[in-house]
C-alpha cells in the first residue's frame, strides 16, 4: 500500500474511482482499460489531488501520477486505511445465493435488531443504519462506497453489519478487506450467465465468500437441499459449518418436524431452534427455506429465541411476495422474481392459495442473460392459467425482441403480449374475478423502469392500486 506519509502529504479529502463523481481533494483510482488515461485527465480537471494507475504516466501527468502494480489491490488497501478499517470494528454477516438474499438479509437485520444490536444493512432494496433508510442502486456497492458506508455505520454506533453479497462483487473483489463473522448460502439457479458464462463460474464466484472472505472463526450456514449448497458444504474447509434442510435430508444439522403453509404465513416446528412451533407472516415454501436458513444462522451466533420470534412476527420485505391488493376475494401479489427458479416458486405458492384463476404479468430485463427468457416463458405458461408478457427493464434492447425470446418458450394460446407494462397490468387487473390471484413479477420494490439508458418513474404497486379501486 502507499505509505501513510504519502497519503497524508497528499491532503486527501476523499477516494474515487468514477471520473464522473470526482470532487476536489479526491485521490482518483484509474482502473485499467482503454479509457484509463482519459478518465484520469477528467478526474484531475475536476480537482483530484493525484491519480493511482498501473501503467506508466503520460509525461504531462507525471507529477500527479502514482504508479502501482495493481490499482484494484491499492484501492482496497487505501480504503481500509482512509476509513480507519471500519469492518474490523463490527461483526459482519453476509448472505449469498441466487434467490432469497433480500428476504434473508431483512430477516438477519431484524433478528439482530430485536436482540438489541444496532445494525447496518446493505442490499438490493436499500441501505440502512438503524432506522435510517437510504435508496440502493446495486446489491453490493462498489468497494469505496461500501467502505464509506461502513465508516458511517461505525460512527453511528453499529455493532453488526449485514450484507447481500452478489457474485459480481465477490468475483470483482468489491468486498476485499472484510473478514466475515458469518456467511449464508441460499441456493444457486440460472442467472447472470451473461457475465459468468457458465454455472460453474457462477458457483465458483459465490464460493469465494466462504473460501476467501470468511474469517477463520466464522460460521458458514448452508441450504443443502440445493445441489450447489450440498457441494459447497462438502468442498469448503471451515471449522464451523451448519447444514439446513427443509426436505429432511439425512445428516443435516437443522431439519423441521413440520411446516404449515397458511394463507397469512407459516408455522414451523424446528426442534433444533425451539421446543415449540414458531410463526411468521412470510408466505410460501421458498420463504420457509429463507426462514430456516436465517433461524439456523441466528441460533449459531447466539441470538435469543425471543429475538428470533419477534423478528419473524413483524418483518416485512418490500416487493417479495407482497400482497399489494386484497379485497378478501381478489388478490394481487408483487414479487421481484426475475429468474426461472424464483418465478416458478412464486407461482407455485400462489397456486396453492388461489381458489380461482391464477394469472401472471412478467417480462425479462434487457442487456441481460437471454438464455433464461424462453425458460421463464415456459414456466409462466405451466404455472399460471394466463400470462401477460410485457416489458421489464428493456434497457438498450428492443422490448419486442426480448418478448419474442420469452414467447419462444410458450406453446399454448393462454398468453397475451402487451409491450407497455402499465397497459399489461391494467388489463390483467381488469380481467380479475372473485377468487382470482394475479402475480406481477420481475420488478418488486423498484419504482422505476429503465428504457434505453434512462430511468423513468414506474411503480407496479401504484398501477395496481389505481386499477383495483
UniProtKB/TrEMBL annotation:
Instruction: List residues, modification N6-carboxylysine.
Output: 206
Domain Mur ligase central: residue ranges: 95-295
Q: Could you say which enzyme class this protein belongs to?
A: ligase
Cell division: present as a keyword of the record?
yes
Q: Which UniProt keywords apply?
A: ATP-binding, Cell cycle, Cell division, Cell shape, Cell wall biogenesis/degradation, Cytoplasm, Ligase, Magnesium, Nucleotide-binding, Peptidoglycan synthesis
Give the free-text PTM comment from the record: Carboxylation is probably crucial for Mg(2+) binding and, consequently, for the gamma-phosphate positioning of ATP.
Give the family from UniProt.
Answer: Belongs to the MurCDEF family. MurE subfamily.
Q: What does this protein do?
A: Catalyzes the addition of meso-diaminopimelic acid to the nucleotide precursor UDP-N-acetylmuramoyl-L-alanyl-D-glutamate (UMAG) in the biosynthesis of bacterial cell-wall peptidoglycan.
Record PANTHER family: MUR LIGASE FAMILY MEMBER (PTHR23135), UDP-N-ACETYLMURAMOYL-L-ALANYL-D-GLUTAMATE--2,6-DIAMINOPIMELATE LIGASE MURE HOMOLOG, CHLOROPLASTIC (PTHR23135:SF4)
Supply the name of the protein.
UDP-N-acetylmuramoyl-L-alanyl-D-glutamate--2,6-diaminopimelate ligase
Amino acid at each position: 500500500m502507499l505509505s501513510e506519509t504519502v497519503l497524508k502529504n497528499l491532503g486527501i479529502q476523499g477516494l474515487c474511482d468514477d471520473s464522473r463523481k470526482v470532487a476536489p481533494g479526491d485521490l482518483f483510482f484509474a482502473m485499467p482499460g482503454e479509457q484509463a488515461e482519459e478518465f484520469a485527465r477528467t478526474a484531475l480537471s475536476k480537482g483530484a489531488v493525484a491519480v493511482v494507475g498501473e501503467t506508466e504516466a503520460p509525461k504531462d501527468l507525471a507529477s500527479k501520477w502514482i504508479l502501482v502494480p495493481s490499482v484494484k489491490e491499492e484501492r482496497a488497501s487505501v480504503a481500509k486505511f482512509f476509513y480507519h478499517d471500519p469492518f474490523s470494528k463490527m461483526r459482519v454477516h453476509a448472505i449469498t445465493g441466487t434467490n432469497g438474499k433480500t428476504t434473508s438479509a431483512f430477516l438477519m437485520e431484524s433478528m439482530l435488531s430485536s436482540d438489541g444490536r444496532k445494525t447496518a444493512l446493505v442490499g438490493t432494496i436499500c441501505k440502512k443504519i438503524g432506522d435510517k433508510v437510504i435508496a440502493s442502486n446495486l446489491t453490493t456497492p462498489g468497494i469505496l462506497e461500501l467502505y464509506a458506508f461502513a465508516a458511517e455505520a461505525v460512527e453511528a454506533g453499529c455493532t453488526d453489519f449485514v450484507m447481500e453479497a452478489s457474485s459480481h462483487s465477490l468475483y470483482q473483489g468489491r468486498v476485499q478487506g472484510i473478514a466475515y463473522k458469518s456467511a449464508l448460502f441460499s441456493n444457486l439457479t440460472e442467472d447472470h450467465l451473461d457475465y459468468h458464462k457458465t454455472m460453474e463460474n457462477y458457483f465458483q464466484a459465490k464460493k469465494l465468500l466462504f473460501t476467501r472472505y470468511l474469517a477463520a472463526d466464522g460460521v458458514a450456514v448452508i441450504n443443502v437441499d440445493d445441489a450447489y449448497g450440498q457441494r459447497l458444504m462438502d468442498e469448503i474447509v471451515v471449522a464451523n459449518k451448519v447444514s439446513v434442510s427443509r426436505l429432511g435430508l439425512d445428516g443435516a444439522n437443522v431439519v423441521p418436524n413440520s411446516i404449515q403453509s397458511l394463507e397469512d404465513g407459516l408455522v414451523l416446528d424446528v426442534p433444533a431452534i425451539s421446543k415449540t412451533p414458531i410463526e411468521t407472516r412470510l408466505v410460501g415454501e421458498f420463504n420457509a427455506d429463507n426462514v430456516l436458513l436465517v433461524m439456523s444462522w441466528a441460533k449459531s451466533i447466539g441470538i435469543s429465541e425471543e429475538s428470533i420470534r419477534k423478528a419473524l412476527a413483524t418483518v416485512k420485505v418490500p416487493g417479495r411476495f407482497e400482497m399489494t391488493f386484497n379485497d378478501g376475494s381478489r388478490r394481487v401479489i408483487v414479487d421481484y422474481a426475475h429468474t426461472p427458479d424464483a418465478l416458478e416458486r412464486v407461482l407455485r405458492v400462489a397456486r396453492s392459495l388461489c381458489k380461482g384463476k391464477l394469472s401472471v404479468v412478467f417480462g425479462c430485463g434487457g442487456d441481460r442473460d437471454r438464455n433464461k427468457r424462453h425458460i421463464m416463458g415456459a414456466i409462466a405458461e405451466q404455472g399460471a392459467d394466463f400470462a401477460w408478457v410485457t416489458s421489464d427493464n428493456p434497457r438498450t434492447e428492443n422490448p419486442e425482441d426480448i418478448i419474442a425470446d420469452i414467447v419462444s418458450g410458450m406453446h399454448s394460446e393462454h398468453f397475451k403480449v402487451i409491450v407497455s407494462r402499465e397497459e399489461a397490468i391494467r388489463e390483467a387487473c381488469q380481467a380479475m374475478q372473485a377468487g382470482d390471484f394475479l402475480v406481477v413479477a420481475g420488478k418488486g420494490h423498484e419504482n422505476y423502469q429503465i428504457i434505453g439508458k434512462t430511468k423513468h418513474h414506474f411503480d407496479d404497486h401504484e398501477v395496481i392500486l389505481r386499477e383495483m379501486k
